[in-house]
Design brief:
This protein is mainly α and 84 residues long. It has a single domain (3-83), classed as Monooxygenase, CATH 1.20.1280.290. It has four helices and no strands. It has helices at 3-17, 20-29, 37-57, 60-83. Helix 1 packs parallel to helix 4 (60-83) and helix 2 (20-29) packs parallel to helix 4 (60-83).
Length: 84
């Protein structure tokens, strides 16, 4: 593994785990009223496009980070629609 790929894995890991506190807070409080639905839909769509891009360029760090982030943001979106 080269330095650039390692950098990609570290960056992807940090930006992906950044969503865990919000996910846990939303799940625990059963409320997502403070999360903008428009932001969440836009962000989730952007993550999906990054994932597709990752497959197009065959970049493992981009694919893994955005695949996991897509799952996390999709769960938050589900909670937003369910709890609000």
């Amino acid at each position: 593994m080269n330095t650039v790929m390692l950098l990609g894995f570290v960056a992807g890991t940090l930006t992906t785990i950044a969503f865990l506190p919000q996910l846990f807070k939303t799940w625990k409080s059963r409320s997502a009223k403070d999360i903008s639905l428009e932001w969440l839909i836009t962000f989730t769509t952007g993550i999906l496009l990054w994932l597709i891009y990752g497959f197009c360029i065959a970049s493992t760090p981009v694919i893994l980070a955005n695949g996991v982030t897509l799952v996390l943001t999709s769960v938050i979106l589900f909670f937003k629609l369910k709890f609000d």
